[in-house]
Amino acid sequence: MVTDYDCWHEEHDAVTVTDILAVLNKNAENACRLVAATVKRIPAARECKCGAALAHALITDAKVVPAETKKKLEPIVGKYLA
């Protein structure tokens, strides 16, 4: 999600840091809505392998991952950090 065009688009007006942060915050809200809407559309039963796409993606030994980090990551990779 683009925050400003002035850095590369010759015909775009200059922007301020305030402008960029406002767009960045709006983009974060949009991203959250997108993820929530996407998750709702994932069927409970799947035959594809996408449900286990992260099975071999984590190379950090689960024993050294702090409990707080495991808690934060639970919805995404909890089954792999057990």
Mean pLDDT, all residues: 87
How much beta, percentage-wise?
under 5%
The chain-level structural class is mainly alpha
State the shape: elongated
Termini, distance in Å?
Answer: 34 Å
Describe this structure in words.
- With 82 residues, this protein is mostly helical.
- The chain has 2 helices and no strands.
- It has helices spanning 17-40, 67-77.
- The longest helix is centred in the middle third of the chain and has 24 residues, at 17-40.
- The chain starts with 16 loop residues before the first helix and ends in a 5-residue tail after the last helix.
Give the tags.
82 residues; elongated
Summarize the SSE layout with pairings.
Layout: H1 17-40, H2 67-77
Summarize the entry for a quick read.
With 82 residues, the protein is mainly α. Helices cover 43% and strands 0% of the residues.
